[in-house]
Design a protein that fits this description.
Strand order of the largest sheet: 1-2-3-5-4
Radius of gyration: 31 Å
Order of helices and strands: EEEEEH
Shape: rod-shaped
Structural class: alpha+beta
Largest sheet: 5 strands, mixed, barrel
Number of helices: 1
Mean pLDDT: 77
Strand content: 15-25%
């Protein structure tokens, strides 16, 4: 009985290790099913899925030059074809979230979905200066908050 890559064969679990299970394919041939190839889901302990003596159908993944046979149980299972695919909503990105040089915005990406209150523009120098000072103070406060909790560097908490 010759075994070829891609072929589905039946075998018997002959041994279990923490990294997989050895499958006796008959004709004095043994292959290994890695723990990641046992099931589609996560398996913490292979003993939960297989026991010695279980009859399993496996698919031959590869045959090494040294005679090692790599097997898969999960690829041997025929899955029904999904005819209807669920479409996931696509993410839309706002071009204004990045500065023109490709760096992150100065607010760290926060509040990118909130709209800024638009006030009517005032042309006199005093109102422009007070607006600038207010924005500057807000930026400094948010910068101070974000660096306060971090270790090292400037602005660390001092008691």
């Amino acid at each position: 009985m010759s075994i070829e890559v891609g072929e589905k064969v039946s075998g018997k679990v002959s041994g279990i290790t923490n990294f997989g299970a050895f499958i006796d394919l008959g004709d004095r041939k043994t292959g290994l099913v890695h723990i990641s190839e046992v099931s589609d889901g996560f398996i913490k302990d292979i003993h939960d899925a297989l026991t010695v003596g279980d009859e399993v159908t496996v698919k031959v993944l590869s045959i090494g030059d040294d005679g090692k046979i790599s097997l898969s149980i999960r690829k041997a299972v025929d899955k029904p074809q999904v005819t209807e695919t669920k479409s996931r909503p696509q993410k839309t990105f706002n071009k204004d979230t990045r500065a023109s040089n490709g760096s992150r915005p100065s607010n760290g990406g926060k509040n990118r979905y909130q709209t800024k209150k638009v006030e009517p523009q005032k042309d006199d120098f005093d109102s422009l200066l007070s607006g600038f000072l207010k924005d500057s103070e807000d930026r400094l406060v948010s910068l101070k908050r974000s660096t306060e909790g971090k270790r090292g560097g400037r602005g660390g908490r001092r008691n």
